[in-house]
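Deliverable D2.4 — example input (structure tokens):
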């Protein structure tokens, strides 16, 4: 496929390396001070930039009728606007807080655990995410998706990074070293703890999932999620 990369940082470069190994061609690259190639040659755009740039990048692709896969986190207050724009342009759009197949399986395990744990009121759920010190947003998009999975299957109503009320889930964000992304859900009672952890060893899983999503999106119209891509 002919791919555009919107954002050419850690993720953009990882996607470029893996996409080339898979036989795809990068026809356009854009960073804050870089623009190479021609966007309109692209069959799909893969967008991993910064929260402030994501909406403009996504809207630009939709308006130019280029299918767009976005993994940028921290801009979701404007997600519904992008859904509306995609419909108006009859475009193709996938956003995921995490494109790794392992994390998407973890999301399903998390929802299953939330259902099982819901009646057992002596356990209280909490989430911890650990990332590298360059990460701009907190909590991670993945931690928010995990919290939403618990909220969907329990009496919890929202998440917080402060001291939680009874109907809130606490998310703790830790920034250290070059951690690629570690997410833990823990159910803690006075006598024991049940915890589930996903730990990314490299960024390759995120990048492979985004390339898979771009391939899957070919010839499809609408707004999709990684659950659609993976059929889970
Ligand atoms: N959904 C998922 O699976 C994953 C999501 N992410 C998310 O992806 C995003 C990027 O992560 P990462 O690559 O690690 O971050 P980086 O900081 O390494 O890269 C971000 C890049 O965006 C560039 N940029 C800035 N402004 C624009 C613009 N207007 N248009 C295009 N590019 C621009 C920056 O350019 P410059 O270097 O010149 O400043 C930089 O190269 C983050 O939001 C992160 O949370 C990360 C991993 C997985
Ligand atoms: O910024 C990162 O690095 C990551 N961001 C995503 C998030 O916010 O969930 C996904 C992954 O954990 C890496």
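Example output (designed residues):
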């Amino acid at each position: 496929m002919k791919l555009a990369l919107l954002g050419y940082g850690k993720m953009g470069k990882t996607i470029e390396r893996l996409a080339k190994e898979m036989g795809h061609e990068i026809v356009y690259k854009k960073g804050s001070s870089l623009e190479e190639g021609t966007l309109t040659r692209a069959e799909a755009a893969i967008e991993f930039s910064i929260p402030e740039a994501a909406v403009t990048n996504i809207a630009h692709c939709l308006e130019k009728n280029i299918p767009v896969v976005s993994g940028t986190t921290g801009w979701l207050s404007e997600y519904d606007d992008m859904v509306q724009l995609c419909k108006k342009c009859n475009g193709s759009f996938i956003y995921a807080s995490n494109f790794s197949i392992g994390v998407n399986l973890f999301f399903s395990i998390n929802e299953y655990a939330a259902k099982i744990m819901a009646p057992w009121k002596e356990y209280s759920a909490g989430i911890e995410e650990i990332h590298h010190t360059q990460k701009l947003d907190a909590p991670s998009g993945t931690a928010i998706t995990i919290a939403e999975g618990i909220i969907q299957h329990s009496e919890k109503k929202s998440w917080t990074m402060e001291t939680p009320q009874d109907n809130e889930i606490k998310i703790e964000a830790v920034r250290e070293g070059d951690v690629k992304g570690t997410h833990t859900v823990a159910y803690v009672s006075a006598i024991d703890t049940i915890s589930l952890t996903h730990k990314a060893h490299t960024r390759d899983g995120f990048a492979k999932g985004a390339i898979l999503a771009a391939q899957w999106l070919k010839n499809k119209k609408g707004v999709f999620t990684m659950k659609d891509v993976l059929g889970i």
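The longest strand covers residues 124-131.
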